[in-house]
Amino acid sequence: MKYPNGIKKGNNNLITHSNRGMSLEEDLNQTNEYYLLHDIANIHKKPTSITIKKVDYTKNDMICEAYFKTPSTTDYNGVYKGYYIDFEAKETRQKTSFPLANIHKHQIEHLINIKKHGGIGFLIVKFTLLNKIYYLSIDDLENYLNNNQSSSIPISYFEKYGQLIEEKYNPRINYLTCVEVELNERNNRKIS
User: Fold this and answer.
1) Cβ contacts of residue 62 below 8 Å, gap of 6+?
2) What is the pTM of this model?
3) Strand locations in 69-138 (E)
4) Which residues of the chain have pLDDT under 50?
5) How many domains, in total, are found in the chain?
């Protein structure tokens, strides 16, 4: 089809390896912006630390070669009600399980360390084909890893131990309701 000024329109809905996970990330960024604007929490996406090796200054300073300085920890961190929050967000196109290859060992160790120091660590996993988003605490993730040899976590585990997060208009992915449940469980354990 010919468009004015020679503009060609293609299929912009293609899912590629390079942009997978972006819709969850965009929704979480909008959610965090909502939390900040309404003075609910201060949580941000962590920048990726890279070292630039080669730049093409003839092409608008385009980076041609770069590498990660250190392995990244997790995607998001911040503060909510005086608690340090740290979490990793992942998407999968699998319908029946979440592949553990999608999360790195050092990220899990980081979340365990956050918990050890009194912070709140968790995963947010979106099963894109099912349009379901789950919150899984680091306690439940660690429990699964310690008691299973599987290379993936079945969706039934998320259904039983995780919390389903309903998508809304604002905030898009209100994961702080899940954090509240976890805080209440912590407080109940302290009282017992």
Assistant:
1) 55, 56
2) 0.78
3) 76-80, 83-92, 97-99, 120-127, 132-137
4) 1-21
5) 1
